[in-house]
Amino acid sequence: MKNILLSPTIKKALSYDFLFGLVISLLFSAFIYLEHYGYSLKFLNTLFALSALTLLIYATKRTILFSGFFIGLLWFYWIGYSFQYQGVGYMTPFITIGFGFVYLVFFGVLALTNKIYIRALLLFGLSFIEPFDWNWMQIELVFVESYIGVFKYQLALVIAAITLPYYLKKPFVYLPLLLIPLAYNYNPPVQEQSKLKIKLVQTNIKQEKKWLNETLPSTLEMIRKEIDSAVKDGYDIVVLPESVFPLFMNKNKILLKKVLELSHEIAIVAGSLIHEKGSSYNVTYIMQNGEYQIAKKLILVPFGEYIPLPKFAQDYINDTFFSGQSDFLTAEKPTDFTIKGEVFRNAICYEATCQEIYEGDVKFVIATSNNAWFAPSIEPTLQNLLMRYYARKNGVTIYHSANYKGTGIVR
Which residue among 210, 226, 305, 349 is the active-site one? Predict the structure, then answer.
């Protein structure tokens, strides 16, 4: 057995599968990295995405497994970065490798069969699956900055176009490729823009300093300057990032009063925390005309703000790796608020990449994030691509303010 496993033929086959799997993963992930480094081109994104999906369907079983592993690494290597701020930074490489294996299994279902049409159906089916409630692996996302649309029927057309030639003979073998132009996004949903003048503030506060007492005075001074600048420039709304006030705002009456005084001049949307009835919430404060409204988070981040596992496992992981802090509670429904006649839907970080936020009559979303948890990495780029995906699917315009990177209007 040992001689067989180490034979040149086996080694060569494994090397081929390893390299081919790496190539597929690079094609599948290229649109993220091209966007991240400012070289995103629709033609290349379209070509790479079509090539990646085709190769996933036709590759050998071992190649598919390698592909899934590398895709997991290329998309989510950064997730473990946040563990250093929980005092368990040694977990970072294990989390990174763990996500590689999660997506080895995720895409590995394609390796359960050699039948091309079954693989095609399985690949389409994967676009509905969210491992551990983590929804950032959207198969259609590979087309978000391409010539092809991001709706399910368009993905289905593409998969059919690259699958059917296997079952046809000349001269009709390439005829199914005509389905690809039908996947072009001819009639995208209308995305309006608010008539209000909105200032989106991007801060750059390092995560290791964000919650320190000695950092608070400079943070508050920065916030005051941003608000004053927005008032001077005639803005209607100033939006500050998630938890820009690194404290329980409802427990700091003096600070709250001062900010409310400023809200007579301009509407202020800013992230903070609230503690009430023994529970903590990650919230947005909407302040205008000396009064405020609180928008609580609806959707928590898996393994960051809640543990998507049975209760016994939740308690163990929360106490062992999160110091008991992964226990934020949520709102029961999305929060809408009105500023000067315009209605906005609230979204805090991860929520802006979840379909639940876009349900109902939604035109405008104000989203806030703290991306410093994952600096430096591609996370803000991937988040922005996901927001474009949901904004375009739902005909919504997103106004996004972030700490570290990602601030801007997303359409």
Answer: 349
